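User: Design a sequence. Structure:
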């Protein structure tokens, strides 16, 4: 039963992340803070959340930073970074380490999940799955490992 409950929880998290992506696409703009400057977006998250993710500039790899928003997954506020690739929007939601979802399609959107050193990341877009793999590699290469103090 525990395995089924974990599967259901992961499916629910994936559904909630995709719902946030869809809501953002229906809104006049998909972000709460609009900026292509990571030095604007990261401090914006820092002022609203207990932990904020790195916000790498991926424009050279074809993923232009648009801004960020705070989504709520379960009862927890989480950072979502918004990128644009051609005419496609990529929502990258951060979850605490240890949470995960499987790569899948939900409501016609591809979902890609991976873990970094501080967060689990979930990318949602109508991009093909192969392009989300490229996005993951670009994001992972662009996110420096945090200093240990």
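Assistant: Done.
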């Amino acid at each position: 039963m525990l395995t089924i409950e974990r599967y259901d929880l992961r499916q629910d998290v994936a559904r909630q992340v995709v719902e946030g992506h869809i809501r953002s696409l229906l809104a006049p703009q998909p972000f709460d803070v609009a900026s292509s400057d990571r030095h604007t977006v990261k401090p914006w998250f820092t002022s609203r959340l207990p932990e904020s993710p790195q916000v790498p500039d991926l424009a050279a790899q074809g993923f232009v930073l648009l801004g960020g928003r705070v989504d709520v997954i379960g009862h927890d506020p989480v950072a979502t970074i918004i990128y644009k690739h051609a005419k496609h929007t990529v929502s990258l939601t951060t979850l605490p380490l240890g949470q995960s979802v499987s790569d899948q399609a939900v409501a016609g959107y591809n979902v890609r999940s991976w873990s970094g050193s501080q967060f689990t990341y979930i990318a949602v877009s109508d991009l093909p799955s192969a392009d989300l793999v490229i996005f993951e590699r670009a994001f992972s290469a662009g996110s420096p490992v945090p200093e240990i103090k």
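Confidence is low (pLDDT under 50) at residues 1-7, 145-149. The longest helix spans residues 2-26.
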